[in-house]
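User: structure tokens for this one?
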Amino acid sequence: MSKQIKITLVKSTIGSKPNHKKVVKALGLNKTNSSVVQKDNEATRGMINKVVHLVKVEEA
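Assistant:
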């Protein structure tokens, strides 16, 4: 079983670049303080690195 990570949107995307908003949406996050559990793989980690200033990441 692959590892999973919990991603929480801790800062609003208002005023963010359009590409950052798209990445947050693609991760499955909508509102501030919403959380989602994703597989821990290179694609997910790359998306997180784009918006690291907006999210908090924990092991699930």
